[in-house]
Amino acid sequence: MASTVLALGCSFSTFGLEDPPPEGSTGGLTDGSTSAPTTTSPPGETSTTSATMSEETTTTGAAESSDDGVGEASSGDSAESSTATTGDPPKVCGNGEIEGDELCDDGNQDNTDFCTVLCKPPTCGDGLPGPDEVCDDGNVLDNDECLSTCKAAYCGDGVTWEGEEACDDGNAIESDACLPSCKAASCGDGLVWAGHEICDDGFNINDYNGCKPGCTSKADEYCGDNSVQSTYEHCDGVTGMVGVSCESCLFDFSQITQMSCTGSCSYGATQGCGKDDADVFCKLLTGNAAATATSWSLSAPTDLGGFACSDPNVVLNGMDLRKWLGALPEFGVAKNVAWQATKIKSTHGSAHLLQAADLECSE
Predict the structure, then answer these.
(1) Binning pLDDT at 50, 70 and 90, where does residue 110 land?
(2) 122-177, pLDDT tens digit by residue?
(3) Quick one: three-class SS letters along 102-132?
(4) Tally: H helices and E strands in the chain
């Protein structure tokens, strides 16, 4: 029967008396060290030396194990804890210090200055309205209320604002497919769509000077049809009267040179040539019912034509050359207006009258 004894951390074998150690054996030593002497005991007795050495060896091994294992682990944990505690503090955007990948840090929450709350300079498209931006919705869409240029959408910017505009061609042309109001051209909008409509008066019900339904044809009666519609027109084409032309189917008296206003021939409220006659002359000359005379004077007549005596009961010298035009409310004139082609002096006498050259009118 063999038993194993540990001594000083090294192992060796103690063989029974009947089993001598093998030739060349070192008595159980394996590391080349010299073994302490041992005392053998008779069978049934325990070796005191072996037991004592075993206990010491076990105690020593445990202590060494404790020092090498537990001690080193504890030391390692402590070092790591120390490193974590003494490392760099976390970087904070907004503390007024430029750290890490920050491009700026002014320490405030104002996005309208030159450093945003993201610690970056403001840029169009960052979703933060900057100092030179009207808006910034953070996208590149041009059909919403904020353009990709960070400007607010508006009619005329050339980009159609979805849900707000039917179109936007960026111009102020009223005769193309998109109106300046950013609405699509259509029959009934009162504007003629070039290449698509003949006319468009906004009603298109075939009334005078208007348009037939569908905007494909003018009304049956209109200015320019060479037929005078007395309800609406003074003329339509050439008038055949010296010094009188036709403009938009109304008389143009701007070339008339004189007006007779002596006695009952007055065009004003009172007889004789006065300020009210000068006012009427201005209204007829300018075609403006609100015009008045700012300066006027009386002069001798000539034998040219002009506005003749307004009183049909006055007997003129020789023959009556007057043509009666009727009242002209479009010009603000209530009396029946008389025009004469020539010989005002010969037919009306030498009494002074109003000459256009001596008249100044308000506009």
Answers:
(1) confident
(2) 889 989 888 888 999 999 999 999 999 999 999 999 999 999 999 999 999 999 99
(3) CCCCCCCCCCCCCCCCCCCCCCCCCCCCCCC
(4) 4, 12
Q: What is the pLDDT of residue 156?
A: 96
Last residue of a domain, one of 153, 180, 200: 153
What is the tally of structural domains in the chain? 2
Decide if 287 is inside a domain. Answer: yes
**For the chain, percent helix, then strand, then coil, each to nearest 5?**
20, 15, 65
Give the closest residue to 38 by CA, choosing from 57, 59, 77, 12. Answer: 12
Q: Which residues contact 142 (CB under 8 A, 6 or more apart)?
A: 148, 153, 159
Rounded mean pLDDT of 43-57? Answer: 40
Q: Which residues contact residue 30 at a Cβ distance below 8 angstroms, ignoring those fewer than 6 apart?
A: 10, 11, 12
Q: Where are the alpha helices (DSSP H) in the chain?
A: 48-65, 71-85, 275-286, 344-348
| Sign of the CA dihedral with 80 first, then 85, 88, and 94 last | positive
Residue 223 located in a structural domain? no
Question: Tokens at residue 25, please?
Answer: 């054996």
Other residues' Cβ atoms within 10 Å of the Cβ of residue 125: 15
Q: What is the CA radius of gyration of the chain?
A: 60
CB 312 within 8 A of CB 300: no
Domain boundary among 102, 123, 153: 153
**Residue 324: left (phi > 0), alpha (psi -120 to 50), or beta?**
beta
Is residue 70 domain-resident?
no
Q: How far apart are CA 309 and CA 263, in angstroms?
A: 9
Range of the domain at 293: 245-361
Specify if 311 maps to a domain. Answer: yes
User: Residue 128 in contact with residue 118, Cβ under 8 Å?
Assistant: yes
